[in-house]
Amino acid sequence: MECQICVIFVNMSGTYPRRIEHGGRLRWHRRHSRENILDFSASINPFPPHVPFSPPEEAIASYPDDGYETLKEAIGQVFHRDPAEITVGNGSVEVIRAFCVAAIRPGESGAIRPPTFGEYEMAVRLCGGRVTGDAAGAAVRFLCNPNNPDGALTAREAVLAILDTLEPGQRLFIDEAFIELADPTASVSDVRDPALFVSRSITKSFAVPGIRFGFGFGDPDLVAEIEARRLPWTVNAYAESFALAALDRYADLGESRRLIEIERAWLAGRLRDLGLSPLPSTANYILVPLPCPADGLTERLLLSYGILVRDCTSFGLPGMIRVAVRRRDENMRLVEALAACLP
Q: What is the CATH classification number for the domain harbouring 306?
């Protein structure tokens, strides 16, 4: 079973998976093709809260606090969690990998239901685990909520039902990277259970992909092991400073959700007008089945119109693209380009 198609390579030292393909390669495309590119491949909040950010001079003149006590206290105040239940990382991907190293032993399996974020499979394989679609006997069950790439949201009650049915010793990993832009009432970040771990991120919500910061909530014993395995000073002082400022603006994300909902409905309607059938989404992105292979269409959109969308072939969906929900004028450009490029 493959999620975001994790290709295995073999060399003298054994097997290893190839790096996962991600959206948001705007800098690469600007360098290798053209400067004026509109990026719909990265699902970033188009209406982020304003975050006053003036990093202190000591941010580059001294080491960060590797325990991140102030940062964890601030996260705990927003999410009503004890600092001992909080781990941090250089983006949510590092949190995912550190969790897997702590929770999955070589030969154990992680249960992943595709299509979904490919880093779960990558993390499982890198720690010597196996990937399966069968939850029975798996050390960890993974759930992306809302799911990437389709934006499907699992209700809080359904997540708690999964938690109630876990086998003895089994853990449930919930990735809530987009939940603040979808429906935070579905979150289980407030639930304390030794078998539950919840991963979060500020990248998408605050539109700061260049500042890598993720965090997670779990049982103190598990968090202590994750923290021990985490590289020292993995969250740089600039990212820490921004995260502290962003936490003071968390309530402002409600306005972001309201505006995204309006634009998502408008964009989905225009896509249907083109004869497409976009999948229902609760997030700031839409998965769109195509009447043609995705690779050819994405190439035409980029070369002819300077629009970058996510080819979902790497998710195992070669006939689909994922498009971010952006501001109205930008969404109009996407619709016009699609109208010209679709067969």
A: 3.90.1150.10
Cβ atoms of 302 and 29 closer than 8 Å: yes
CB 317 within 8 A of CB 298: no
pLDDT digits (tens, 9 = 90+) for 209-255: 999 999 999 999 999 999 999 989 999 999 999 999 999 999 999 99
Domain span at residue 313 reads 9-47+253-341
Where a domain ends, among 216, 251, 286?
251
Tell me, yes or no, whether 191 lies in a domain: yes
Q: What is the pTM of this model?
A: 0.90
Q: Which residues contact 270 (CB under 8 A, 6 or more apart)?
A: 331, 335
Reference 172, options 226, 75, 79, 99; nearest CA is 99
